[in-house]
Amino acid sequence: MKKNRWKKGIALFLSITAIFTGSMIPVQASEYWPQAPETASPCVMVMEMNTGAVLYEKNVDEVHYPASITKIMTTLIAIEKGKMDDIVTFSADAVYKNEGDTSHISRDLEEKMTLEQCLYGVMLESANECAYAVAEHIGGGDVSKFVDMMNEKAKELGCTNTHFNNTNGLPDEQHYTSTRDMLLIARAAYENEEFRKITGTKVYVIPPTNKHEDETTLHNHHNMLYPFRTAKYIYDGCTGGKTGYTVAANSTLVTYAERDGMSLVCVVMNAQAPAHFEDTVNLFNYCFDNFQIFSVKDNEKAYTKDKIQDTGILNTDQSFAGLDKNGGIILPKTASFEDAKVEVKEKGESKNSAGRLEYTYAGHAVGGADIMVTKAEPEKFPFDNTKEAGKKGEKTAYVKGNTIVMLVIIVLVCAALALIGRYVSDNSFVIKTKVDRKRNKPDPRYTIIRNSKKKWRRK
């Protein structure tokens, strides 16, 4: 009986010990991705622009009318193709053929403004006549040429569901895009310093022109940056964006925000106001509250030069310079840099890269960094001016005549110097003796007297 009690006591003790010590056993935490808020807008996407990490997406490939967020592309093309001090003249088509009761700043026929002033009108007041006049100016009087530039740029940026047919976003069945494509365009525009300055301006004043004696004051219509109609949505960290609305497109919105080293862009399409502002604010709060950015260069310890060399990315003709200092990854604040999984890619994003480290976490692509190489080249030999021969893999050397002459002269001089050195070395004693004799040569007068004495004795 006592024995059974003893066994039960031991069992009870072990059970209690297991309960209190079980929590001390290390357990591998699963990858955690924060739960995003619900959005009323049907098509939304948020990206961290430094890393390219998508933090939220919803129906991003659906095709919709963009309305006036089209003008982001219009402004980007104008900045890239024109000069800010160019003089733009407003034609009759620009003044009279652009619909929209509120999307204009009442420019007159033959009015002259700089391209810079026009672009502030486009981005802040969404002025349709300014967008048209800019397109005419850049397109050499032909707006369709400017529209072609817009479509070419969209293709270059990787857009697959986009076709532009005008510069202002007025309804057109041949004028459409998707949330994903619009985000690619918005991100590319934000990389341009002039664009960032324009989109982040709250108030701009156009001085008197040849048609207007008074100044024209422009106000940014984006309520998260400037209280154009309401201060309700003013957002700390908002750096610009563009609003859009037509009956066909509903409300569209592009917004930029920066905080804690992160740069976010949010695109909303086909929304019912004020959901486009509310959803953007909520998503920005979600991103800034739950995520943080890491520098790959400062945190990556595993992939050293030797490790990268082992992957075969760097060949013997390339000199490793390091990881791109601008490379970064975005992770939940509950995760550390080491929690992300890394993969080496053979193609980087920059021209001077030999490859790229790309990271994932919880099934999400979270960014990366290019593997940079130096531009230094080994010094070329005179025979290094080779040309490809007829057959693949064969090379033929073409050596210039003056190169051959110089080489022959150098060889002959070197040979002559070598022979002279050899002769001096072999006859050093004889040469030294002759030199010494010349130094100790007797006085000529003594020689004459001596010879004279010899002759006298013989007599």
Describe this entry's structure for a reader.
The chain is an alpha+beta fold and 459 residues long. The protein folds into 2 domains: 248 residues, DD-peptidase/beta-lactamase superfamily (Beta-lactamase); 74 residues, no CATH class. Helix content is 37%, strand content 22%. It has 14 helices and 19 strands. Strands 12, 13, 14, 15, 16 and 17 form a 6-stranded antiparallel β-sheet that branches. A 5-stranded antiparallel β-sheet has the order 2-1-11-10-9, with helices on both faces. β10 and β11 form a beta hairpin. α2 runs parallel beside α5, α2 runs parallel beside α7 and α4 runs antiparallel to α5. The longest helix has 26 residues. The radius of gyration is 40 Å and the shape is globular. The termini are far apart. Belongs to the peptidase S11 family. InterPro entries: Beta-lactam/transpept-like, Peptidase_S11, Peptidase_S11_N. Its EC number is 3.4.-.-.
Number of β-strand runs: 19
Helix content: 25-40%
CATH superfamily of the largest domain: DD-peptidase/beta-lactamase superfamily
CATH architecture of the largest domain: 3-Layer(aba) Sandwich
Percent of residues in beta strands?
15-25%
Distance between the ends: 161 Å
Low-confidence stretches: 6-28, 376-399, 443-459
Number of separate helices: 14
InterPro entries: Beta-lactam/transpept-like, Peptidase_S11, Peptidase_S11_N
Transmembrane segments: 404-424
Keywords: Carboxypeptidase, Cell shape, Cell wall biogenesis/degradation, Hydrolase, Membrane, Peptidoglycan synthesis, Protease, Signal, Transmembrane, Transmembrane helix
Pfam family, one: Peptidase_S11
